[in-house]
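Hello again,

I reread your note about wanting to compare the complex against the isolated chains. To keep things tidy I'm splitting this into two emails, and this first one only covers the full assembly. Below are the input lines as submitted, including protein chains and any nucleic acid or small-molecule components. They are followed by the predicted structure of everything together. The single-chain runs will come separately.
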Amino acid sequence: MGFARARPILRVPSTQTLVGGAVAVVAAALVLYPIYFLFQAALNVGDPEAKPPTDYGFDNFVNLGQYGEILLNTVTVSLAATVLALLFGFVTAWILSRTNVPGRHVLEQLMAVPYYVTPLLGAFAWSLLGAPESGFVNQVWRALGGEDHLIDIATPWGIAWVMALFEGSVAFVMIGAVMKSMDPALEEASQIIGAGRLRTMLRITLPLVAPGVLGAAIFVFAEMLGSFSAALVLGLPNRFYVVTTAMYQLVSQYPPRIPLAAAMGVSLFAVMFAMLFVYRRIVTRRSYVTITGKAFRPRVMDVGALRFVLLAVCVLYILLSVALPLLTLVYASVQKIAVAFPAAANWTLDNYRTATTMNAVRSALANSLILGVATATIGVVVMGLLAWIIYRARLPGSGVIEYIVMFPQAVPRLVFAFGMMWAWLIFPIPIYGTLWLLLIAYLTVFLPLGIRTIAGVMLQVDRTLEESAQMCGAPWAYRIRTVTMPLLGPGLIAAWLLLFIAGVRELGASILLMGPYAKVITPAIVESWFASSAELTAAMALIQTIVVAMAMTLFVALTRRAQVVRE
Amino acid sequence: MPANKTNGSTRRAVLKAGAVLAALPLAGKAFPQPARAPTKVLDFHTYADVAKAEAEGQLVFYCHENEAGTAAIMEGFGKDFPKIKTGYVRAQTGALYNKIVSERAAGRFDVDVIQLSDLAPALDFQKKGGYEIYASPEAGAYAPEHLSDPPGAFFWAGVSFAGIAYSKAKVKPEDAPKTWKDLLDPRWRNAMSCKISSSGIQFVQWYMFRKLYGPDYWKEFAKQRPRAFDSRVQLFDRLAKGDDKVTAIGEYAAYVLYKEKGADVAFVAPADGLPATPLLVGMVSKAPHAEAAKLFVDWAMSGRGQAFYQDNPNLIYGSLRKDAPPMRTGERLRDFKLLSPEDYADYMASRDQFSKEWAAMLGL
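Full-complex prediction:
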């Protein structure tokens, strides 16, 4: 996302420079240290087990030519998923920000839920729904007299559908923000001179939001390139690989082909980095337009009876991405073998019994919650400071720091985890295999998420408030504590929640970095899908979802109570 | 079920492999015998100092087995020795092997015991000096061919074997494949499953069928466009739900598990034999909890541990102990004709070829 910047007016006090510089250096080290090892592995053309490598070269990159089909698969699925996600995001954003659809404030809140549900849960559920033979939808279809199957989710289109459903929520947030900052007078002028609603949307709204949509498109495409879970669950049954799942297979086989996988990862990193560079260029330009646009008040169009159709569109999206997947998992979790029309003997609660009595699962869930809380709490402080350094204080070199901390956005987490594993294995402080390493990994890979979220709020707060405090003689730390932090309160709470959810649900980095006493829940759920049963997996995924929802509710209740007490 | 003597030729295989293994750093060395007599614990013997093991208080286990199976093994041992806290890492064989080798290369020795499902990485690990040589007092209950060479590095904690399995809802018994060659019938095209290249048993099947039927067998098999999966459970899950009609590598353990769940699946044991792969358990060198590791190896070798490996629904591995009771199905391992490699040098040498050919067949 782009943010407006102004020239720094005030001289930077030394404490500020010191703390800011230290945080920036640590963040840069956390990001660059593993990336170095990743590049080293990709260039290793000697003994793959030798550390450090004995021979360097580009053979691994040359060998990637043999995997043209996988690269093509990756691009095709990512493109298809991006187009679909943008369609979902654009349509719902237009409906909820530009029309008078009923209940739009509630719907706006609900639109964020698919992000929490995650593509992994979506892939599990849609696999149960849409497998050609056993999918519930197809079983019902055949029971109604249909032939063969109605849908097949285990296809490239099916993977793109699932990815798009859940990334559509991200596209909605990004495009919605653009639409809200758009001058409605132009749309009104179009309608006054006789253009219909559709024509207005296509000829006026769309061109106006095009730069924002393009920015969202590139961002979402980069996300799709690095996505892992939907392709893993839905692609493998039909021998369909994308780069991330191919890498996973290459490192899981014996003998593992680490250098080749690392070369794939570095190539993907290069492409994603280029995409994000373009994205940043676009949104930086857009941010200027947005600020001038704030001079007018956004208004919504009266779309008449059409608003009920538009309401149905939004409700359908939420049904397909949230309600249907969760209900499917509930239904599957209480069966011995998940089928659409179960016999009485097929009902069971054993899956819940197994899931709740497995010590490993219990400790993994507890660890995930601990890590979620720690990641969110430390993350909000560290990432808040970084956001402040980059977008507010404008310390020397903040532009470089900005690019470095955004690196993890361009590296699939599975790839990043390799670099982290090698990096922290040889690090003199023994944190390898502990929760500390997972915490460092999470804080590193979620830097872009946390900084983007906090910076978005930070830039809405007028800097003159801080400057006033400074003029009154308040030192830097005091200003941060008494002025900046309270003003950022709601934004920081939102960032905490986002980081908490992301931490509890993390998969890619955790798979490789878990230790014998440092397990987390999502890899156990994925593993259960592959090696135990879909029904047990459904029970585990639902338990995770319920526990996370309860933790979030508790956090929100506590912060509200604290707010009431303060008032 | 066709009956035949289990692994009748394995001893010869081990002798042949001796030439290769002689090159190993530890081969030919005298088997170290502990100075003191073993202690009886519960109903098995151990050279471990149980008090010390309990004082160590931990056991770290690396295992290829699925989460539920690995957790079950640890919980079984933990129930017998509650003062020893157990922790484990489970991963597919390749990832697990890479992890432990990387850790040791970096000077980290956190693991006490490792279990692998494939002889090739186990022998590789032995070459690297990865195993501790520990002469278990329970080793006498095993035939020499089911112990490492030299003994003490690892032992065969059980055997997994596979036949053909099919969905009874999709395939009539009279139409079901009866022999391995029946799998090449075009009727199974796009309707059959197998395992991915990281699977030890898949490697054994590939190797043995090349010997039995020639390399063309797999060329014809590739034309069937099989779907490949990570675990035996997935193969049966898909059969139970009708997603596949047949699996070319239906492991008996998963068949039993799914029959008990009420799945409409059937198991066929072709007369030519059933590919079988051992589960290899061994104590790792420089184990941080050495006494706990020895205690675990003895427990796993004992009738007590073996009963656990045989009967736990997530494991169901046939025991190679000479005095092993029947499996929960009432059958013993020797009731099946099993196919295992005879020439381990040749078997190990072909691993890379298998990985590449298999991955290429699956589009990777």
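For quick reference: The longest helix of chain B spans residues 67-80.

B.
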